[in-house]
Each structure stands twice: as C-alpha cells, then as structure tokens.
Amino acid sequence: METAKIERDYNHELLKDLMPKKFGMQGRLWVGFLVAVIIVGAFGYYRQLKYGLVVTDMRDFTSWGIYISNFVFFVAISLVGSLVSAILKLTNVEWRTPLVRISEIIAVAAITFAAIIIIVDMGRPDRFWHLFVYGRIQSPIMWDVIVISTYFIISLLLLYIPLLPDIAICRETTSSKWKKRFYTILALNWRGTKKQYSIVNKCIRILSVLVIPLALAIHTVTSWLFATTYRAGWDSSNFGPYFVSGAFMVGCAGVISVMYVLRNHYNLQKYITARHFNNMGKLLVLLSLIYLYFNINEYLVPGYKMKTVEGEQLYELFKGRYAPMFWSVQIFGMILPIVVLLFKKGRKPLPLFIVSLFVVVGAWFKRFLIVAPTQLHPFIPIQRVPESWHHYIPTWEEWMITSASLAGALLIITLFVRLFPIIPIWEMKEEQMRKHQLAEQKDLYEV
Amino acid sequence: MESQQDSRRKFLKAGLITTAVAAGGLGVLEVLSQDEKKKKGDTVKLLSPDGKIVEVDSSEINPQIPEFVVSNHNVREGVPGKKFVMVIDLSKCKNAGKCRSACSKMHYLPNDRSYIKVNKMQDSEKASPYWMPTPCFHCDNPPCVKVCPVGATFKLTDGIVGIDNNRCIGCRFCMVACPYSARIFNWDTEYAMTQDVFKNIKQHAACSSHVRGTVEKCDFCPSKTGNNELPDCVKACPNGVFYFGDENEDVVSNGDETVQLSQLLKDKSGYRYLEDLGTKPRVYYLPPVDRQFPFKDAESGTL
After folding, report:
1. C-alpha A260: how far from its chain's center?
2. Which of A104, A432, B64, B65 could in theory staple to A159 by disulfide, Cβ–Cβ 3.0 to 4.6 A?
3. Model ipTM over 0.85
C-alpha cells in the first residue's frame, strides 16, 4: 500500500508517545471497577423494571429525582465539546490542539448517557417510541429530544472526522488481524491525499460553527424543562444563561481532570504541558466568575423579596435542611476555584486538578439542589401524606443506577483512549510543522 | 302578505326550538335532583331558565340518556354541549373525608389514595385555618396539557382534562408543571381492576385507568357525568360542599339544592385558587366565611 508511506514518514517520536497503549495493571483494575459498578447499576435497573419506580424514593411530590439532576449534569458537562473544539478554534487559540479530542470524547460520552438516563427515568420506557409517533412539538421535552439528538450527531462527527487520519495510522501500524479489520472499516479508505485533508478541514470548520448554537440550545432547552413551569425556584427567566454558564464551567473542569489523569498515566508531559494547565486554569476562573454572576442573579434577587413559597424554598437552601449542601457546593464548587486559580501557583497541574474535581463534584450536587428542593415546596403545602413523602432521600437503586451511568461515561472514555490516539497525531504534526516554518521564517529575517 | 306569513312561521319555529331546548334543560335538571324526586313523590322542584323555582309533575319531564355516552366514545371528545364546572363552598367543609373515600371507591384506588385532597389552609397567621378540598381544576389553560410530549393528556370539549393511560410514557413533566399538585403517579400499585374490567364498567374512555408507570388524576367521573349524574365526591359529601354542573346551562347542584352558577359566584364572591397564574381553573371556591363548623384539626391518619 503506497498510502502507508505518507503515514509512516511521520515523526516516530509522536507515534511512540501518542499511539494507544495496552492497559497495564492499573488500567485493568480501573476497567474492572467500572464494569462492576455498571453491573450493580444494571441489577438496580432490573429491579426498577420489575417492581416499577416504587424502588426509587420519588413520590407524587418529588416526582423528579437524581435521575433528572444527573441528566442535567450530563448535558452540562457535554457542552465542553463545543467550548474547546469550536469556541477556542474560532478564536484562534493554538494551544487547544492536544485538548480537542479529550473534550470531544467527554462530550460524546456524556450526551450518550444523558439520553440513557432519561429513558431510565421514564415510568414506561417500553413506550419510548411514542415520542416519535405521537410527538408534540409544543412540549419542551420534544425540543430537548430534537436538540440533544442533533447535538449527539454533530459531536460524534466532530470526534470522528478529525480522527480519520489517526485511524489510518492505527490501521497501518497494528499487527493484530481483527484490529486491522476494525481500523480499516473505520478509516473510511483514508489515503491522506491533499483533497481528503481539505475535505476534513472544511468539515471541521463547518461543524465547529454549527455546534456552538446547538450547545447553547441543548442546555437552554434543558433549563426550560424547569423554567416553563410555575414552581417556586424554577420559574425564572435567568435559567437559560444560568445553566449554560454553569455547564461551561463544569465542562472546563471536566477536561482539566481527564487531561491530568491521562497526562500522568501515559506520561504526556511533553504534549500536555504546564502551559496548558495554566491556560485552562485561567479559562476556569473566567467561567467561574460568569457563573458566579448568574448565581447572584438567581439567588439574590428572589432572596431579596422572599415571596411566600419561593422564600420558604430559599430558606431551606440558605439556612434549612439543604444549607450544608448548598453552601459547600457554592463555596467549594464556585468560590474556591476563583480564589485559588487567580494565583499562578494555583494553576499548576496538581492544585488545578484538585480544584477541578471539586468543581465537577460540586456541579453534580448543584444540579440536585436545583431539582429536588423546589418540588418539596409546592403552592399547596404537602400534608397528610406518609412521613417519607416530605423528604427525598434517593434509594440504593437510584444511587447505583446513577453511579452506573457515570461509570458508563468513564468507561466510554477509557475504551476510547485504549483504541485511539487521544491526542491528535496529525494535528500535532501540523502544528510542529507550522512552528518549524515560523522559526525558519524568523531565521530568514534575522539573516 | 307573504312576508308576514313568513315571519309568523319563523316565530313559530323559534318558539318550538326554545321549547325543545328548555325541555332538554329540564331533563338534565330532573336527573341532577333525582334524590329529591323520590322523597316528594310525583312533583319535582326545578329551577326555570329565568331563575325561579317551579314545581313540575314528574310525568311531564322525560329524561333521555343520550345514546353517545353508552356507545363507543372517542377518548379525545367530551360529552357534547357540556362545559362541566365545579364550585366548592369552603364555609361548609369540615373535613368529613367522605369525598376522599367515595373517590377511592369510584376509581378503584387503594384506601389511602384518592384523586381529591383535603388540605388544611391558613392564609395568614391571624386568620383562622380552613379545609380546602382540591380535585383536579380542569384548567382551561392547562399547564399539564401544554408540556405533555406525546399528547397523553388533553382538553376535552366538555372542559375536562383527560388522560390516555395507554399513551402516557411516564415522564412526569405534567406533574411538575401542575401548580396545584393535582396529579398522582402509579408508582407500583397493583390494582385489582385490570384494563379489561375497566372497559366493561366505564363507558367514558377518558376516565383515568390504572396503568403502572403512568400518571392519574381526578377526571370528574365521566361515567357519572355522561349519564347526567353527579360525580361521586359531590354525592358523598354530607355537608353539600361540592356543587357540580354545566357552565353552558349556568346551573350547578350539590345534590340537595340546584342553583344558578353565575348568581352563586356573584352572591358569595366566588374565586379561583391562584387566579394570577392564568391557568383558568374550572373549579371555583366560595370563601370560608360564616362557617358552618368550627375548625377542628385532624392530624391523625393520612386520609
């Protein structure tokens, strides 16, 4: 095959460093752990299918629980795909190259499990097809179905199309027979011709423009699932930008966490440098500040008025039973990154990684605080129902199913890293060539 | 000459139609006050269209149960010509709980569940608490119907918000959209009645049926209203709290008395709960003034 030449002429160092590697002991343990969590979650879901949603702690008043808040979390974190591969691309941020694929696989994994978890939440998952047969465009759920499936496809393309040249490299270098067949099918006859490269670049440009409004749409529409109701705490016109800004923040933190783990595990210090962490840290500060701004809008304004039911709901968050969770989330998930990351030392890889973990975990619980407490404060007070209906404490089935969905998303990312180069080899090569050219030009001028 | 004859013919025609309409109305009234008829023998007290109480011999009125109610009925259409409406007199409610047990019985619900709730309400600290029964309000601008992704809940021509339990996907968006917490979910309960049994006893398909994993709620008992009977909660109430009737006819009855809807709302300052939300409920409340019972708290039990 003459194609192999083009690919094999690549810098061998890049190939050696960036080609997917077999799992070591750690890798196998990690995959085993994820699979175990998924199996327990699957058992929980089997019980839910058998006995109905009664195995959850959701009841007539809290009819949306952690499945929905987890769904919102997944949709939120998936926005990062558009942030790194589109917004940073269109604003000509050159250091983004090694981070593009990491963010895109996070986006695809998260949006996949957002769709799955919403089916888990349905009382009649067997009637999922009703959405397509009897769908009503007037319902925000239909809007969500439309934008999320579109975003899923665009994100998948944004992951897959720039992956083609690298799949071809895998095809040429692998020795295993079945793997060769696998890569050959996926490579779509990639020959590395000029024309193919120009098509790929054109596709990426078009997709990165398309994905920005879609990303805004998925999370804005998701926020409307709440904002279109009359409920105290949800009835807010601030919800769209509030959700979107929070999503960019958690997405950015998600990329930082994953890139830190990959960098250390696969020794990618040469490619994911301290500069990347520094820059992503600055980005995270900016996004946290924007999120802080919308939080102030969301809580200060109604908190100033303390309207009857909304006031009771806010009181629960500020001083009542949800206060410990609320203040931890706000302080560790939003204030802490702003403070720590303002300092250069805070943006070093390890502290940034720790702060990012806080942001991601905080963001998950923040979604819970948006979904659950509101439903415990309807206009007509909850009364004369069993005592347990006054609270919402998720059951083990709910926790396990939710954990399984998170493990599933991590497993997708893990397997992807096992099968494909997580840092785009051909784009890194292009970048190196560009730098080389620039340097040469500089030399010329200096002479 | 010709034109005079023409106008006379028109007049006669109009007269005939009016009589027919009035007779139809009387027929409905007769059924609404059936209990009274049994007590008093051959004469029945009726409200004439101009608001006077008249006594009519029962043989003069001949109620006809419309054919459509019994025959196969479209789930998404209501009883033709009707606009059902309910008025709840808060001054009469003492939380007897009969509406709830009757509702549970009518809808084959477990004893601890019903589609109607009786809430303890207190508008401000110094005001006295009162009991407020809340069925589904069957809003004319229903938030639940708006948000349903598959059209499993819908507005019928007779004003009722119906549910198609064979279409509902159980997403529960309608439950969070309803500001009155009127909807309940079939989390697990395995009711004794299967779908097939329901088909045989209930003529009106829009009636809530029990399908696990779907949403249920008050349906104003279409199997009763379709036959010109009062819903079970109305009939069961020992204190005449609930008035039920037809907005088109401007008549509501609580089983004991039949009154003009517009007059009742005017005289007793009827209002709708959370009017400012703009959902336009079809259930009105009469304020809890001049109470018939002192407020007694009943904390025991969930019913």
Report:
1. 16
2. A104
3. yes
